[in-house]
Amino acid sequence: MPTNHDIAVRLFLQLSVILLTCQISSRVFHYLGQTRVVSEMIAGVLLGPSFLGLIAPDAQEFLFPKTLTLALGGSTIDIIHPSMTILFGLSQLGLVLYMFLIGLQFNVGPLLPGLPRPLQRRGGARRPTDRLRQADHRALD
Asked: Residue 59's domain spans which residues?
């Protein structure tokens, strides 16, 4: 069983290789006229079993091990490697943060004219200040 130190070292090695590959592919594909997102997807293919696993399967298995074999008593059991579980969690967190940033930049203005009137107020919800304003106008009339 790998220690916490072993898992942390492997995780930082994985992250370093991923970030370095993304930087190199970003510069190369920027020169070829591709966007950063496309170059990062290509970097993922280069590090995966389709490329690295094909030309250097031992290096790919060392960097991104799928399973860990544990010996319990006289039997063995295969589990998902802990570093891959942590890397998966970090990748999901990165995806959520990326989608959040995309959502912040999304402009709903062009979509509003085509919606029914009640839905044009950001999901149909009225702001509390709107109700207060209506009550003030009624009181003044």
From this structure: 1-90
Q: Identify the burial level of 47 via C-beta atoms within 10 angstroms of its C-beta, where 0-12 means exposed, 13-18 middle and 19 or more buried.
A: buried
Residue 108 placed within a domain? no
Cα distances (angstroms) measured from residue 71 to each of 4, 15, 56, 76, 77: 18, 29, 28, 4, 6
Q: Please provide the average confidence, as pLDDT, over all residues in the chain.
A: 85
Q: Determine the average pLDDT of the residues in 21-27.
A: 96
The answer to whether residue 133 sits within a structural domain is no
Residue 124: per-residue pLDDT: 45
In whole angstroms, give the CA distance from residue 25 to residue 46: 9
Would you place residue 113 in the very low, low, confident or very high pLDDT band (cuts 50, 70, 90)?
confident
41 neighbors 56 (Cβ within 8 angstroms): no
List own/partner pairs for 57-63 with CB under 8 A and 24 or more apart.
63/13, 63/14, 63/17
